TrEMBL record:
Gene that this sequence comes from: TKT
Entries under PANTHER family matching the protein: TRANSKETOLASE, TRANSKETOLASE-LIKE PROTEIN 2
Domain Transketolase-like pyrimidine-binding: 389-553
Protein name as it appears in the record: Transketolase
GO-annotated cellular components: cytoplasm
E.C. number: 2.2.1.1
Residue ranges of coiled coil: none
InterPro entries the record matches: THDP-binding (IPR029061), Transketo_C/PFOR_II (IPR009014), Transketolase-like (IPR051424), Transketolase-like_Pyr-bd (IPR005475), Transketolase_BS (IPR020826), Transketolase_C (IPR033248), Transketolase_CS (IPR049557), Transketolase_N (IPR005474)
Domain of life per record: Eukaryota
Quaternary state and interactors: Homodimer.
Family that this chain belongs to: Belongs to the transketolase family.
Amino acid sequence: MIAWSNENGPWAEPVSSPRLKWLRTHVAWPPVTVSLWDDTPSPPKSPKPPSSLTHKLPVITDSLQEPPVNMDSYHKPDEKTLQGLKDIANKLRINSIKATCASNSGHPSSCCSAAELMSVLFFHTMRYKAKDPRNACNDRFVMSKGHAAPILYAAWAEAGYVKEADLLNLRKLDCELEGHPTPKLAFVDVATGSLGQGLGAACGMAYTGKHFDKSSYRVYCLLGDGECSEGAVWEAMAFASHYGLDNLVAILDVNRLGQSEAAPLKHDTTAFQERCKAFGWNTYVVDGHDVEELCKALWHAERFKGKPTAIVAKTFKGKGLKGIEDQENWHGKPVPKDRVDALLADLQAQIQAPNKQIQAELPNEDAAPVDNTPIQLPTAPEYKLGDKISTRKAYGVALKRMGDSSKRVVALDGDTKNSTFSEIFKKAHPERYIECFIAEQNMVSVAIGCATRDRTVAFASTFAAFFSRAYDQIRMAAISQSNVNLVGSHCGVSIGEDGPSQMALEDLAMFRAIPTCTVFYPSDGVSTERAVELAANTKGICFIRTSRPDTAVLYEAGEKFEIGKARVVRQSDSDKVTVIGAGVTLHEALAAHDQLAKEGVNIRVIDPFTIKPLDAETIVASARATGGRVITVEDHYKEGGLGEAVLAAVGEEPGIIVQRLAVDRVPQSGKPQELLDLFGISAKCIVAAVRRTFAN
């Protein structure tokens, strides 16, 4: 049967009816999201359909819309399999309760709402090698509602990868089964727990599978209903439908209750359904505790082409736990000790075949093995000393050249490709470019997903200021052990007339605070190309800070650069002060050097190349050689930038004084040179600072 409804009411009729055949021919199809059931043995009672073929239907004009799959072709699992899935669901509940009781913390009620969802996914739908969770061919699973981690661990215990006894070590210091999933575990691709981020990462995995790996593996993401208040979820929804990611399934665990009160939509599955449909998803509404409905919906999802599928599953928080099910104030609380035995006994009594095991189907062997061969620029940079080029454009050139060297290199951008110059890569390698539009949170999540299992080397670019919007995603990328490369352009007041909303002045502080992050700040075309090359081969997050103004090439094409190694650009035996600048301010420091040299004052000029790690050894040695006098100059706020990095490097060294020149207030529009002067970071301001050093 197929059912739908609109303002004239609901009705249902057989898929094979002449009326529906006419509708398929003359009306955009399907008119709305369908409900699923077989014609046999007996469908739900059907409301009487309207007699007229002119009954008004909503029209769907999406060019990706496909005719519906044949509902009659669904092959129902046998009764033993269905009972086995029910039994596994209760086993997962039992182990989630035991684990959270052992740790005296966790979220068993959130686990229990998802028990049937996890059972059907892991033991009926997904294809994977249980003993090899990171296998490139495996289906992917993202637990976006990361607080339900215990049931994920329980599922992998049921699959035979995790020892059941280890579940009792949940959340302990010496156990990798943490409170929320992290990739310390081989079966976790991305860390979750900061809600709303899992679907974006799943989009990156699905895009990679469909367009880069060209593999049959599928991606499943389990979301909570509460996290669907996060805007990042809907950024991901829009992305997935735009790219027709029909290898992606989002399962919404609509259990009604949030952490402190009911979720906004409670059990209004129709509202979730309509929202998903409005974002261009094929959508099914199911009873999330009915394993047969879940099997059927997931079966149809696998066969639906042209769109991602959302399964809106009505569930109950704490399902199966008498006195706790669908009750408020049980979020994040283990079952009380005086009730646990009775609840476990009740669940155990519902298991009919406790020793029956269901093995996951193996995946198709159609994804290439991981290739971690180092990626190098095909030739040395082609710039000559004195050539003028902005580092943002040099980034685009370098990225294109890295793409020439390796098909693993992919680029993402947030509709700024003509400013970040990632468009150079797109023109050369359009099949490996992902336009993420103005949705920076999702762009970062997609990049993280693309980089999982080392399937790609991903570079994502936008204005550096806009990465602040995605800071939580970046923070979670570090927990995910992600090897993702983020490139921010339009840094500082040197961008000029666009004004402060476009000026990145906090980005160095942001990225320096990320534990696994390498922060590059190249100052010319050659060092930018080498920064891109190094980032492509560096573990962890890499941030490359690029600038808008054209600046002179400072280095020979054959110069070698290393992470954590500064370059002393100007020096003499009579240097009086060490000046450290980066990007635009390095060129201002060089101009100050030349002006002071005419006055008979020599200064040492250092290009740090990386702000994290910073070359403390070179800086300390130079400071000692210049009487302990150091000036830092940066197109960034004072807090958290180059100056503070240098202070940290020399902080335990006696006799070294650091004077910091930086943007000290919210800036404004103006010409670049005017703003450098106004905020005290231009060549003339450096000259004045050097003079003040001697005056003091």
